[in-house]
Amino acid sequence: MTEIRITRHFATIVDGRWGARQVHYRRAGRGPVVLCLHQSPLSSRDMLATLARWHPHFTCIAPDTPGFGSSTPLGVARAGMEDFADAVIEFMDALGIGRTAVYGFHTGAMMAATLAARHPDRLSCAVANGFVSLTEPERADIVANYLPPLQPSWDGAHLSWLWARLREQSIFFPWYRAAAANRLGGGVPSPDRLQDALLDFMRSGDHYRVGYRAAFELRSDEVLRHAEAPLLVTASTTDVLAQQLPRIRHKSAAVSVQTGADPDATLDLARDFIRRHAKAAAPASSPPAPLPRALHQDLIDLPGGQLGLRRNDTGNGRPVLLLHDAIGSSRTLIEAAHGFIGRRPVIALDLPGHGASDAALARGPSIITAQARSVSAALTALGATQVDCVGVGHGAIVAIESALREPQRFGRLALVSLPFLDERQRQAFGRQGAPDIQPQWHGGHLLQAWHMVRDQTLFWPWFDHSRAGVLRGTPQVDPAQIDARVLELFASSGLWRRSLLAGLKWPMTAKLGKLRVPAAITSSPADPWSACAERAATALPRLVRIALPDERSDWAGALLPWFDG
């Protein structure tokens, strides 16, 4: 079989109908271009098997639809499928695609059919795999019951609901009707597969209802009557939606309906249909345009994988590089980065395995060395010959290691929440601070992660639940923020734990003693690690001590005078 290389990219829509936004997409293969549109509430990750099967025949471009995966939402509470179809056209324009074939699965199928009716001049053909054809009573029932609001709860109970919901929809359709007549024939996916789906669900948040509702509310009979581009409507016999295909009575001459024997046979059926119609070549990939007055996302190709980042190039002087903590990504430093925009260029990297960065970049005997190596390679790729750096938590360790490797590259370092632990604390964190949280069939791992992340804001160390461990001050327990950190934890595929454990063994005092780049120990009054910062400043008096405001958006005001000094 031909080796497959799937790359990830961002496209920027600067001045579209829904304002400035970015679309994340995957790309693979060669030949005529085919857009591959995923189901809700997932992302283009759901198209990996399709890309693997089709890459010898087509250039497959699989975007995350707006509000799913890593694509910007449309910013509206309700949208019709025609809106999502128009958003696809904006994406095509951003990539320079004039005409294309489109393949969609479930929600993506409804989008593909809508494109065939609404924008036939931009399509060579379309395939709708898993097309929804509801009766009016079914539509009313599903719209009323399929899409309950998803809001983070203080106790993490929404995660238990999400897990149960994902299990249930593999057992019943619709998922909320646990009756013999609604029982599906298949089994429950493995915990790892459910976990992947759950992370996509968490990324979409309550927006999941916008995409789902648009698919369910679409008048499929009207779409099929008005389709002008060649359109194949299909479903595998193993797909519950195959039962709805015989309901299709009225359609245009451009529409054909055919059932596939199984999922692979259905993909082959779609492939052959597309091969008869698709002719347009795919444009070359190009970097995303910057967003005005904001950070834009991008990916850098490095040996061994791709590294994600957020950046803004306005401002003068040395760029400010931001490196996140072990549980985090560049997303968790957006507020801090915004303070520098217009004053300095800003680069916020995703460390290997975090955010949009590939985990393969973290391979090697030392994860800290691998992370520092990736930082260096990314800065070289960006043409950043010298930077000032803000490293937070584990990111501060990576900043020190990077500056030791390439002192000429770094002007000054701001080490925020530096984990400067004594030996007793190191031992305690090694035993209890980084539990190995693995997906379990019953979903109990989700509550374990939730309470660990929440307790990090209530106790120090988080696992000391005694009076001695109580953090004073205003509790930082907003459920949305805890939910975002839990997502970061699981999205790192365990690399948060490897990073933390590696940091405990890293000879911090010796490394800081060798540092020749000016460095400052920094923390805010509400920082649980501020006592460690004081200990580091006492042990290493040659390091500058800078107090930070509690609000990350104000960090730039405290740090720029020292960076500019």
Describe the structure.
With 565 residues, the protein is α/β, with parallel strands linked by helices. The mean pLDDT is 96. A hairpin with a 2-residue loop joins strand 1 (7-16) and strand 2. The chain starts with 6 loop residues before the first strand and ends with a helix. 37% of the residues lie in helices and 18% in strands. It has 3 domains: 7-150 and 206-277, Rossmann fold, CATH 3.40.50; 296-422 and 497-563, Rossmann fold, CATH 3.40.50.1820; 425-494, no CATH class. Helix 11 (367-382) packs across helix 12 and helix 12 crosses helix 17 (508-514).
Please outline what is shown here.
With 565 residues, the protein is of the alpha/beta class.
List descriptors.
Rossmann fold; 565 residues; 16 strands; 19 helices
